Amino acid sequence: MTRAEFIAGDWGTTHLRLYLCDRDGTPLETASGPGAATAAGQFTAIFASATAAWDAQYGKLPTVLCGMVGSTIGWIQAPYVPCPARLEDIAEGCTPIETPRIRIVPGLSCQNRLAAPDFLRGEETQLLGALNLFERLRQGQQLVCLPGTHTKWVTLNDGRVEDFLTAPTGELFAILRDHSVLARKPPAASAQHTGATDLEAIAFEKALTSVVQQPGTQILHRLFECRSRPLNHEFPAAAAAGYLSGLLIGSDVQGALRVLPKTSTPSPVVLIGDAQLTKLYATACAAFGLDTHQVAGPAASLAGLTEIYRRLS
Fold this sequence. Notes:
- By secondary structure, the protein is α/β, with parallel strands linked by helices.
- It has two domains: about 5-140 and about 300-310, Nucleotidyltransferase, domain 5 (2-Layer Sandwich), CATH 3.30.420.300; about 170-295, Nucleotidyltransferase, domain 5 (2-Layer Sandwich).
- Helices cover about 35% and strands about 25% of the residues.
- The protein has helices at about 45-60, 125-135, 170-180, 200-215, 225-230, 240-260, 275-285, 295-310; strands at about 5-10, 15-20, 25-35, 65, 80, 85, 95, 100-105, 105-110, 115-120, 140-145, 150-155, 160-165, 270-275, 290-295.
- It has a six-stranded mixed β-sheet, with helices on both faces.
């Protein structure tokens, strides 16, 4: 029987995902729990409950956790490693909690291309996992995008993180969809960028085309179209969220390409995250002439956590 050796966990804002892993990082079992936003003061109890069966069978295994568990709203505040940084070095910055068996992965910080402070937490582990899954990311200059509530655009140079840029694309989408008259949420809409229905997909493409064709127009001057175009019967009001998503993601991609460095031999942009969301970003990148490669976020996180465990061991 395969022997469990460690526990890997991604404890984000809204969800806790735990993996009971063997020596190679293959998940044997999984467990889940509430996110860091609702776990205040309960981290010890939540973790103990989620791992009780594993503790009974295997003893208290070494554990590596990444994500918002190490933030100001987390179990403990883990430090940020300043960029430029080798992702392998983040293992050295892990913070022990309660007992040395539990380690919290640090985040990354930088001065971004807009001369502003920038931070990420959780994505560093996905980046490390992607480096281990795809060797080419360790060669030359590469651009990685991690779409989400706060989308991260990361520049790599020979596998080292040079800097990154954050766009609160997902957060802005949710706020405007849920709390404005621009694109009221259909009853069955999900909490993320939609684009799932045919009507939303058509509206998304329409907005994206508009962004590409009018590159100098500010997003602020485009947002009311989410309301005006349905009023003009160009698409149903129920598809307005798709149009909003197209405007925001298109502007995100376009703005990042203006700010981030160009390479003489362009490689595909690596997209890491939720499958539906990375698909929307891949469509937007293609509209700007960019090839992409999509990587599942959970697979990248698990690969990164496994590498960190190996280095800690």
